[in-house]
Design a protein that fits this description.
The complex is a heterotrimer of chains A (341), B (270) and C (416).
Chain A: E1 4-16, E2 22-34, E3 38-42, H1 49-56, E4 64-73, E5 76-77, H2 83-90, E6 95-98, H3 112-123, H4 129-142, H5 159-170, E7 177-181, H6 189-204, E8 210-215, H7 218-224, E9 227-232, E10 235-241, H8 242-247, H9 252-259, E11 311-313, E12 317-319, H10 325-340
Parallel strand pairs in A: 3-8, 3-9, 6-7, 7-8
Antiparallel strand pairs in A: 1-2, 1-4, 4-5, 9-10, 10-12, 11-12
Helix pairs in contact in A: 3-4, 5-6
Chain B: E1 7-18, E2 25-36, E3 40-45, H1 51-59, E4 66-71, E5 74-75, H2 81-90, E6 91-94, H3 98-101, H4 108-118, H5 126-139, H6 144-147, H7 157-171, E7 175-179, H8 187-204, E8 207-212, H9 215-221, E9 224-229, E10 232-238, H10 239-244, H11 249-257
Parallel strand pairs in B: 3-8, 3-9, 6-7, 7-8
Antiparallel strand pairs in B: 1-2, 1-4, 4-5, 9-10
Chain C: H1 2-8, H2 12-34, E1 52-55, H3 57-62, E2 65-67, H4 73-81, H5 84-97, H6 109-119, H7 131-148, E3 153-158, E4 165-171, E5 175-177, E6 185-188, H8 199-235, H9 237-252, H10 255-266, H11 273-282, H12 286-300, H13 303-310, H14 315-351, H15 364-373, H16 376-379, H17 386-410
Antiparallel strand pairs in C: 1-6, 2-5, 3-4
Classes of the chains: A alpha/beta (341), B alpha/beta (270), C mainly alpha (416).
């Protein structure tokens, strides 16, 4: 069995709003990423997936606050460490983060090489500019980016190139875990593909050991990741391999989510897209019991009584629903039969 | 194309040029388009391909640089406000971003009442108006009693987009131009919106033009697909032909670059 | 609307600025109700009376007198009479008379006078002293004698028949009157100006007129700017080009020069406060026009405007219902700045003597102008100009603070 690069145990973080209300956007989330693996996190907007990405770095700034749980990176527990130490020693070096609109984070008045100098000098004061340039050039060439980019200003680059540059800068210090939060959502399909190819390359060349990939685009997630976690209202509702989660979802929410996938492939026009009525709950006061209950087709009386734990299922899967796996499969089979007729 | 169907909207040599001199950009370049009664077509293009400009020209929101638009066989005339208003009774739109589609100072009632007034219902008694609004809201699974006296921004994105459909339900236009109607909303609500549009189409015999960057969505909803690149249509035809048997390299590339589920996604081709 | 107002009043900056401004407004409104004197009434025969309580001497003779035995009364009286020049002169004489310099303290009035009385001898010959100087010391000695006397003063009335003076009253050194019992007392908190007018009353009236000028000028500038900005931004094309040409023309000419030229060419007799306000308004609209145009251009392609068009609304309806509400906050902010700028422009013009020509009402700028012409700043008559500066600064400060507060509320990027 391979090394666990990142382990998170029961992590809970909250936002404190201007009106002093607590919003638990990440609620007792546990996850494990092994060396060489990519974990995908799927969910709709507002389900807490971006907050989870921020929380995983162990560095919190208002309005986000840490509540409980542990983050262990390659055997080192970073919870409870001094925030300044986390910022200097962990961020970038151990765990790197690419936010949604990363390409807009580039200061338009600075050349690309300047950012790289900034990043490296923050961690190593005695390195010369020439060494930095050499290091950056090698990295860029490994990743298939032209070295001329280093001497350019952000405005001279296309959106896709900017995004790939940011990704390259973020792995300069060879972090163990890379968290990519919708790294390609603002790009056209061709640039998206290039970004994905680059992320794959990072894993293959061993520049990063493991990756967490967050997106709401399920076909993309399926193509990039080994394992998928589905998030709903701050909680993980299903865990499994990419294959299992996409083609054989267990939780009713995952079922709906996977049923809404649109890909330009044969047979798409014959399928009826799944729709989930209603809106996700307000995380200021989520419903008691199952958080999906108000929108669930198969809701039972017990669902709303007390909170539902994760249930183990065949393989290494888990899902958060009180209906047993066998019964769920029967329900889905019946429904598929009804739809087909 | 079936001959007996009426040609609703057509455009020939439609061109839009922004700026002049050195800053000249051709957004839409001699585009021909034929839209028949009851059809659903999709115009697919990446950002900057000119698809939204084309939509705005078809809607009459911006002027055309060159080319003609024919509506129901006659050359479109929107030279005066009255004629424009008449044209807009026949062609309506749903925009991409529901959050910026509404005037935040107007209540939901105003949005719906505007539609009733446009259909000549200005003198209806208030009870009749409420009845119409209730009917429209229930068509999109919203409750008018809960919406009245509220502002659009108090709704979720999906609800706002449904309210947009309720608007179309009241206006009953012959043609609907849907500009990326589902790109800003969640996947789970997407099916609801699409279903409602298709049902509305059935109910009032509407013709729909989808403007989208999502080639999968275009394939799912439309009868025929137009692929647009740099202001030109590079390929068009029935959805099955264009998507499953693409001929043009651009279409092939576009299809190839979209992540798939059943087929292998070939990463080596970039 | 209610929500927005609540948010505005939660902004500390806005509330602080608003409080100052409302305070000024209240003073301007309430003060004339209590003090009903005409602001330009000339009360003082002479220029620049210092701030203080003015008690009628004649009336105080007639009021009940009280005897108070205050120890330091005499010392205070002498101290107030003995000028700094006299003190150094005394010291000079004493030193020349042979008193060691270390023993003389010009600040200790009593000791100094003691030394003087004990040592001064008008006949003593001091080498090197001119006759004039000697006479000066004799005069000084005589005046000090009067000071040091412990008797009071007789008040004599001329007998109209005989023409002889008859003592009618005697005022002792320890007699006092109660100010509240004196029939005529005038408080001049800020003294009088060069014309002998009560500065405070004048200042309040001037503030009112200046605020009115600011409001009129600001409103005119904002209205013109708004109308042209909306027209240029929404209609676009040739209309936009023409309006922007005029606006750019105005932008490149320094406003103040323009203001001076127009004010000058209106002519002395037509330059009332209202005319000046209109002139200021007419030369200040173009920044608003530019800003409004930019906002409208970004708004006119928004989806909600497109939707309104598709709903068959007319241009007028779209401008009023779909564009104006979106820029309303911006326009209010521009209005506030324009008011502030209008008040400052009036002050600037008036200092140059091109302000409202009027003898009926003062303005803040005119007060500064008068103070300057009569050299208040050189003579050290601070009360004639300093309070005016404070009021102008306070008005500009409060308005700008309100503007910043509003900006924070309306501009999410600045919100914390």
């Amino acid at each position: 069995m391979s090394n666990t690069m990142l382990e998170v145990r029961e992590l809970t973080t909250k936002y404190i709003t201007r009106f002093r209300e607590d919003v638990y956007a990440v609620d007792h989330v546990s996850l494990k990423v092994e060396e060489g693996k990519t974990l995908g996190i799927a969910g709709e907007s507002g389900c807490g997936k971006s907050t989870l990405a921020l929380s995983l770095m162990g560095y919190y700034f208002p309005p986000l606050h840490y509540t409980s749980g542990e983050i262990i990176i390659d055997g080192h527990n970073i919870t409870g460490m001094d925030p300044d130490v986390v910022r200097k020693m962990i961020l970038g070096a151990e765990i790197a983060y690419i936010p949604q609109a990363a390409m807009n984070a580039l200061n338009p008045t600075q050349k690309i090489i300047h950012f790289i100098e900034d990043v490296i000098q923050e961690h190593d004061l005695y390195v010369t500019k020439k060494d930095i340039y050499e290091r950056a050039r090698i990295l860029f060439e490994t990743l298939g980016l032209p070295a001329e980019v280093l001497q350019k200003y952000p405005v001279e680059l296309s959106g896709g190139m900017k995004q790939r540059t940011v990704i390259a800068v973020s792995v300069l210090l060879l972090p163990k875990v890379l968290i990519a939060d919708e790294p390609s959502s603002a790009l056209d399909v061709t640039s998206q593909k290039m970004v994905i190819k680059m992320l794959r390359q990072l894993m293959e060349t061993g520049l990063i050991s493991s990756m967490i990939f967050i997106t709401h685009e399920l076909p993309l997630l399926y193509n990039v990741t080994d394992d998928i976690m589905v998030m709903y209202a701050g909680q993980i509702v299903e865990k499994g391999t990419a294959q299992e989660t996409v083609f054989d979802p267990l939780h009713p929410y995952s079922k709906g989510l996977m049923g809404s996938i649109i890909v330009p492939e044969k047979g798409l026009r014959d399928v009826k897209l799944a729709a989930i009525p209603g809106v996700p709950p307000n995380l200021k006061n989520p419903p008691a019991g199952c958080r999906f209950a108000p929108r669930c087709k198969y809701v039972r009386e017990e669902c709303t009584l007390h909170s539902i734990p994760m249930h183990e299922a065949a393989g290494r899967r888990a899902y958060r629903c009180i209906i047993p796996e066998k019964e769920l499969r029967e329900i889905y089979a019946k429904e598929a039969y009804r739809n087909a007729r | 194309m079936p001959v007996e169907k009426e040609l609703y909207l057509s455009a020939s040599g439609l061109t839009k040029v922004f700026g002049f001199g050195r800053q000249k950009t051709v957004a839409v370049d001699h585009v021909d388009l034929n839209l028949y009664e009851g059809e659903v077509i999709s115009i697919v293009g990446e950002s900057g391909s000119g698809k939204t400009t084309l939509a705005k020209m078809l809607l009459g929101l911006i002027s055309t640089t060159e080319g003609d638009i024919y509506f129901q066989g006659k050359k479109r005339d929107i030279s005066t406000h009255r004629k424009k208003k008449e044209y807009w009774k026949n062609i309506q739109a749903i925009f991409q971003d529901p959050f910026s589609s509404y005037n935040i100072f107007n209540k939901i009632d105003t949005v719906l009442l505007d539609c009733i007034h446009m259909r000549g219902g200005r003198k209806f008694p208030y009870a009749k108006k409420v009845e119409l609004m209730t009917e429209a809201c229930s068509f999109v699974n919203l409750k008018f009693e809960e919406l009245t006296n509220k502002y659009p921004f108090e709704l979720s994105g999906g609800q706002m987009q449904r309210l947009m459909i309720a608007r179309i339900f009241l206006l009953k236009p012959k043609i609907l131009l849907a500009d990326e109607p589902t790109s800003m909303i969640d996947a789970c609500s997407r099916a609801t919106i699409l279903d409602m549009l298709m049902q509305l189409r059935k109910e009032i015999g509407m013709t729909i033009i989808f403007i989208t960057h999502d080639i999968g969505l275009a394939y799912y909803v439309s009868d025929s697909v137009y692929i647009m690149e740099h202001g030109k249509f590079v390929e068009s035809g029935s959805a099955d032909d264009v998507i499953l048997r693409p001929k043009e390299p651009y279409t092939k590339r576009l299809l190839n670059d979209v992540p798939k589920i059943y087929e292998e996604w070939d990463l080596s081709t970039v | 609307m209610k929500h927005t107002l609540r948010q505005i009043f939660r902004s500390g900056k806005f509330v602080f600025g608003f409080s100052i401004f409302v305070g000024i407004l209240l003073i301007v409104i309430i003060y004339p109700l209590i003090i009903t004197n005409h602001p330009l009434e000339i009360v003082g025969q002479g220029t620049f009376f210092p701030p203080g309580v003015y008690v009628n001497v004649y009336d105080s003779l007639g009021s009940t007198s009280y005897t108070l035995m205050l120890e330091d009364a005499a010392a205070k009286r002498i101290a107030s009479k003995l000028s700094e020049g006299d003190r150094t002169a005394i010291k000079e004489w004493l030193v020349k008379a042979g008193i060691p310099e270390g023993e003389i303290d010009t600040a200790d009035t009593e000791k100094l006078l003691d030394q003087w009385v004990n040592n001064y001898d008008p006949n003593k010959n001091i080498p090197g002293m001119t006759n004039a100087k000697r006479n000066y010391f004799i005069r000084l000695n005589n005046s000090l004698k009067g000071l040091l006397s412990t008797e009071g003063v007789s008040i004599a009335v001329k007998n109209t028949e005989t023409g002889a003076l008859e003592e009618s009253d005697f005022v002792g050194q320890s007699e006092y009157v109660n100010v509240s019992q004196v029939a005529s007392v005038r408080v001049l908190p800020l003294g009088t100006d060069n014309f002998g007018r009560d500065v405070l009353t004048e200042l309040v009236a001037a503030t009112r007129v200046s605020l009115q000028i600011g409001f009129v000028a600001g409103t005119i500038a904002t209205l013109i700017g708004l109308a042209l900005g909306l027209l240029a931004g929404y209609v676009g094309g040739l209309v936009d080009d023409i309006i922007m040409f005029i606006t750019n023309l105005f932008t490149v000419i320094p406003t103040f020069v323009l203001l001076i030229l127009i004010s000058f060419s209106i002519g002395q007799d037509k330059r009332g406060p209202f005319a000046i306000a209109v002139v200021i308004g007419l030369t200040a609209w173009f920044w608003t026009a530019r800003a409004v145009r930019a906002q409208v251009i970004s708004l006119r392609n928004r989806d909600h405007v497109n939707l309104s068009k598709l709903s068959g609304h007319s241009i007028a309806h779209i401008i009023i219902a779909d564009i104006l509400p979106y820029i309303a906050s911006y326009v209010v902010m521009a209005l506030i700045l324009q008011i502030s700028a209008g008040i400052l422009a009036e002050a600037g013009l008036s200092i140059l003597g091109l302000g409202p020509r009027t003898t009926e009402v003062p303005t803040l700028g005119l007060m500064m102008n008068w103070a300057m012409i009569y050299q208040a700043q050189i003579l050290g008559k601070w009360w004639a100009y300093f309070p005016v500066i404070v009021v102008i600064a306070l008005i500009a400060f409060s308005l700008n603070l309100m503007n910043t507060g509003l900006d924070q509320v309306f501009n999410p990027a600045l919100r914390d």
